[in-house]
Amino acid sequence: MPSVSNPNGPSKNRLAARASKARKERRKKSETPKDKVAKADTTRGARKGLLPTSGPRAKLSAKKQRKVEKRAAHALKRKMEAEGEAEMKGELRTN
């Protein structure tokens, strides 16, 4: 039986290159300072100590923050009501 690798899979060279690249990226990521602002955030106005003004890491406005808190409170209330109903169903009635 000849020792031939799977022709459909990546070659050993490709696998080694992929692993090497992953190691290199991991090393780079760990060496970068934690307080460094991402380039994408810098384009949105972020600086050291300042959050971007738009995008996923932007600071929420006071109005948006109130809405988020209201939604969270409502969800918690619904959850509590659902749990309360579940407990009531489990009780035994004695006549």
| Coarse shape | flat
Helix percentage: 55-70%
Number of strands: 0
Q: Main sheet?
A: none
Distance between the termini: 80 Å
Q: Calculate the mean pLDDT score and round it.
A: 82
Task: List low-pLDDT spans.
Answer: none
Count of separate DSSP helical elements:
3
Strand content: under 5%
Number of domains: 2
Rg, alpha carbons: 27 Å
Order of helices and strands: HHH
Describe the overall structure.
- The protein is an all-alpha fold.
- It folds into 2 domains: 12-59, no CATH class; 60-95.
- It has helices spanning 12-31, 39-43, 62-90.
- The chain is flat and about 80 Å long.
- The termini are far apart.
- The mean pLDDT is 82.
Supply the key terms.
95 residues; 2 domains; mainly alpha; 57% helix
Care to give the gist of this entry?
With 95 residues, the protein is mainly alpha-helical. It is built from three helices and no strands.
